Amino acid sequence: RQIIFRESAWMKEKMRQVGLTVYPSEANYIFFYGPEDLFERCVAKGILIRDCSNYLGLKKGYYRVAVRTHEENQELIRAMRDGTTKVAVKLHEQNKKLIEVLEEVLS
Question: Which alpha helices (H) appear in 18-69, and where do they start and end?
């Protein structure tokens, strides 16, 4: 459990650094928002992420990933870094307030 917690914190930080909007979670997966074509870009690199656009109330650009081994997580972050754009950075800035509110509510 501690390994997953540490790895999750590392992943969330790296994902924010590449401009993704990461939502608070205590589970062994991370829910986030990014470029609408991120799924396709990751698949092209042999990485699968869960497209959550079919979840009630969500649209294209919402995803979920599992926290895995550090090596696998590094590979995922590399694929995401390559698949992100300036659009993701802009969206991250717009959603900062939402993240702050969610973190307050969940703490």
Answer: 38-44
Please give the Cα distance from 13 to 29 (Å, whole number). Answer: 14
Element (H, E) at 13: helix 2-17
Q: How far is CA 101 from CA 8, 31, 84, 96, in A?
A: 20, 16, 25, 9
Region for 57 from its dihedrals, namely left if φ exceeds 0, alpha if ψ lies in -120 to 50, beta otherwise: left
Give the separation between CA 37 and CA 51, rounded to whole angstroms: 10
Give the Cα separation of 34 and 39 in Å (integer): 9
User: Of 19, 18, 25, 38, which is closest to residue 94 (Cα–Cα)?
Assistant: 19
pLDDT tens for 68-95 read 989 888 888 888 877 654 445 555 565 6
pTM of the predicted model over 0.85: no
